[in-house]
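Many introductory courses stop at the sequence. We go one step further.
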Amino acid sequence: MFQSNNVIMHNYLCRKWFLLLLFVVYRKLDPVEGLKCYCDTTGPSCQNETCETDGFCFASTTLKDGVEKYEYRCWEQESVFPPGDWPIWCQKGDVFCCSTDLCNRSDEPDTTPTAAAWQVVPWIIGLMVLGICAAISFWWAKRSRKMLKRGLGSRPLFPAEDSLCEPRHPILGTATIRDMIELTTSGSGSGLPLLVQRSIARQIQLVDIIGKGRFGEVWRGRWRGENVAVKIFSSREECSWFREAEIYQTVMLRHENILGFIAADNKDNGTWTQLWLITDYHENGSLFDFLTARTIDSATLVKMALSVATGLAHLHMDIVGTKGKPAIAHRDLKSKNILVKSNLTCVIGDLGLAVRHNVSSDSVDVPSTNRVGTKRYMAPEVLDETMDTRQFDPYKRSDVYSFGLVVWEMARRCGALPDEYQPPYHDCVPPDPALEDMRRVVCLERRRPSVPNRWHSDPILSSISKVMKECWYQNPAARLTALRIKKTLANIGAGDLGKM
């Protein structure tokens, strides 16, 4: 892309210089006002057989009834065609044009058009300059294609299997999505170019539906043999779609524990407009689905919890620099918004409610959407509305509280005698709790999910339970930071697991 931009700029400069050269030639050919010509008519414009013009003198020869007839006139500049150039009629054999005083006076005018050497040379030079510019542009374009081809390997730029009706983009070729992300973003995670995003979106085939939510549906799609996840928002959720796509394209956001963003596009299916968000596909589904169907061992528990904490720490961290990353808080962290990769580590997804910290103004960029977080995972200060929404740190502490509940869900499914999967506070509130239910249990009664006795006899579960309890303190300031959680879980993995 960078190379093609250089070609465009180079062509633009060539055209600019050529137009400047044409302007200079035009100024040289532009006759001086007040040119005197011989005329053979009567009237105010021809007195004493002389007329004045800002254009040309001309003489013409016509044959009428076998007799040659001569005419001598002034030719005004406004009547000249093409404007500013040698008149097209002067190129005919029966018309003579000239641009010096009384140059058209002759008993038998020479009707052969003449041009001085200085009038021809600039045009020859102009054509040479244009030819050189065209040759350089062709060489530069060829060189750019070779460099791009080296970046993508030895793949053809336009594969034969593509339909002629499909949108084309040179960078697509037969490259994988991972190739394109690495080539165009240089690992910055700021998102693919919009044209590439649209090209990918228009070539995806939806295969089967894999989930539904309040925003819309999630489908498994196929793009050139690769599985992708397509989140289709309903039209009333446009703000959520736009916000999530905007957050995913934050510079330096791309991380192995953040769901990989591929593209966003709006597609008209003939009845309504679909809003697509295309991400990496993970066949294990959400952490909620995974824990509902499967149990885990101690090593997997630590690996999963550590990967979620690592992703959360990356979100919460601000990277200072000219192209730095702002700190981001998730605001809706739960097991349904965490996906399980094939290696059983996790990635955090669904950033539609995320907020960003603006360091320069110390303000919080809050999305303009009516959606709120999931009540079951809301921190006490969110439930009782005592959180200072003008500051950014309270949002991070709220995320940490939600993370503690997610770890509790994972820990229940671990061990020799794992418990049946249950969501947090399953024994305290209805399946779809209201705000009042959660406020009563979490804020007034200050209850937290119960810790089974069997955890105390297991060194891993015992260590994990200490971490989760430090995540859900009633006082937000007393909770661990995501970075501290990450380091603690890494020590648990290196220490307690190493002894087993």
